[in-house]
Amino acid sequence: MSFRLLSEPMLSRSPIDRAEELRRDDAALAAGWPTARLLRVDSQGRVPVEDGRVALVPAVDTADSPPGDAVFLGIVDDHHVWAVAVSALAGEVTDLRSFGDVLTESSAGLVVTAVALLNWHRSAAFSARDGSPTVLSSAGWSRTSTLTGHEEWPRSDPAIIVLVHDGADRVLLARQPMWPERRMSVLAGFVEAGESLETCVGREVGEEVGLDVSEITYLGSQPWPFPRSVMIGFAARADAAQPLSFNDGEIAEARWFTRDEVRTALAAGDWSASEDAPLLLPGSISIARAMLESWAALQS
């Protein structure tokens, strides 16, 4: 049994022009500042929202020129867009986990990029090479050591996410210990040093639920800025008769579900749906949702 994603994951659809060629062009960035828009992000990754859209403010309302702690996100509708970290926000605020499914593709793309970049800046104040303080450079797309001038760039941590099926009508879903009962998803884990993506799929499934997998196939990917990952989706086949064993403590429970059970859960909503539902699945911003929807659409 093989399948592909029926739609591109939501957080991968960003139409933003990142305008990489402008990041070191101080004159061009300054010229674009009078009509630029600014996205404010608090320490919890939340942004202001109005009518289901990210609320951007005129950049010149906050400063006469790009401040040293702002990051250039790119160009949307002929306007430069920047982001800046703030300590607090007033009014309605949201984050990608709780409100991402109603944001436009442009809005979601801006928030994903801003949150990932600002998370990196918070943890990269000192050079990983020489320990000296670093400052923002390249319009927020790098940091430079104040001692040696060594430049460092944002890091994305690769993680696999895998839908394990039995080759027929069942899929394996699992719950992490911190999740409430009935909230389940597919398996995931970070890629280790020196490891291929396919090897990681096999290792993570074995460590988390004790199953051997085969027929590993790539499905798609999406950014996941919690704090700065990229999720790489796969499908893999396992024998449903093989006993489950939770070997690394990351899984509280796991079991096989039929396609009809998954279809019912998808129709009921997501993790925020009624607590009476026997199975609650991830929301639309997660690639896990796209993977499950695509698998559930197969004909038995």
Give me some keywords for this one.
300 residues; alpha+beta; Nucleoside Triphosphate Pyrophosphohydrolase; 3 domains; six-stranded mixed β-sheet; four-stranded mixed β-sheet; 6 helices; 16 strands; 21% helix; 28% strand
SSE layout:
Blueprint: H1 26-32, E1 37-41, E2 47-50, E3 53-54, E4 57-58, E5 71-76, E6 79-85, E7 93-94, H2 96-99, H3 105-123, E8 134-137, E9 142-145, E10 151-152, E11 157-165, E12 170-175, E13 187-190, H4 197-209, E14 213-224, E15 229-238, E16 253-258, H5 259-268, H6 287-296
Parallel strand pairs: 1-6, 11-15
Antiparallel strand pairs: 1-4, 2-3, 2-7, 5-6, 8-9, 9-10, 11-12, 11-13, 12-16, 14-15
Helix pairs in contact: 5-6
Radius of gyration: 21 Å
CATH architecture of the largest domain: Alpha-Beta Complex
- The CATH homologous superfamily name of the largest domain equals Nucleoside Triphosphate Pyrophosphohydrolase
CATH T-level fold name of the largest domain: Nucleoside Triphosphate Pyrophosphohydrolase
Distance between the termini: 10 Å
Cofactor: Mg(2+); Zn(2+)
Organism: Rhodococcoides corynebacterioides
Catalytic activity: a 5'-end NAD(+)-phospho-ribonucleoside in mRNA + H2O = a 5'-end phospho-adenosine-phospho-ribonucleoside in mRNA + beta-nicotinamide D-ribonucleotide + 2 H(+)
Family: Belongs to the Nudix hydrolase family. NudC subfamily.
